[in-house]
Amino acid sequence: MLTSYADHFDTPAGYLDFARFGPPSRDAVAATVRAMEESAGADHTTVDGLMGAEGVARDTAARLAGTDARHTVLLPNASTGLFHAALGIREGVVLAPRTDFPANHYPWRRTADLGRATPRWLDPASGGGVTPDLVRAALTDDVVAVSVSAVDFRTGFRADLAALREAIGPDRLLIVDAIQAFGVAGMDWDAADVLVAGGQKWLRAGWATGFATLSDRALESLEPVLTGWTGVEDVGLFDGAEHLPAPDARRWSITHLSPVTAASFAAALDLVERYTVAAIEAAIATRIAELTDVVQEYGGQVLSPTDPARRAGILSFAMPDHDPSLIAKALHAEGVTPTVRTDSLRLSPHASTPPEASDRVAAALSSLRN
Known about the structure:
4-stranded antiparallel beta sheet
């Protein structure tokens, strides 16, 4: 089944950088080309026809997230969703991990500057992530929300969203950045009040794609500060008056998105739905296990969680006495593409990654012994 999934892609065997960018499928590329070609020969039906891709992508994203279209909105990236959520909180403290990717920091820094929500930074243990115990220890009466990544971008640590939901109780918001998990990790997405994801990484949809889902609690409590002209009631009535924000997740719409990128996003999400998250996740786990064995065989220090239940598709490691830049050079020589950090390297395979990738990594690490 996953062999036929891999047939949709032209990605080189040694590409192991999906946590940074996921090369799109031929399906997504073809959908993009078709949309551009249709727009080039526009007539009176073209714009409305192209706009239909947004509804298709929204509906598929909603199904994969376990919700419906009313609670789902397409966005150009995850950061836009995080800013919507942050600015929607009028006051109070938001718990957020200091170790998260910077995109998860700046929305809260800006709200603090504006006198709205104030961040309180959590400090997970080295190599770990945000746990229910860490959150419970930081809870005070003024905490109104917790913002967390479903999967840590550094180590692949997988947050227990259901346990975090239980820890914070029913009255606080749980805001989840799912960009390193959605479509490749089965998680309790319904535990989140706000779920945001970009499509350019594991979803393999290309840049300028993404979505958010909002729970009823989020729709009721978050102020729609950034609502634009496409996010209001009677959106087609141009009467010069201010219209009320839409009652559903459409209130997070600022303006029309590109129907070209929406077509790519719809094609990418369709592949995930057809082949299933469970099958994709299992294939990635197999590759992670193989890569872990290789790294450890050649003396590497694994920085990611060793428990498969607590990690997703990211393997971070360091080689004692070897500079990461030199390790990267050896990997590049074998046609392997990793993420290179100042203190470590990150390998992130996908379901289309063949077993050959592990052999290439082994050859690269073996060369360091010479």
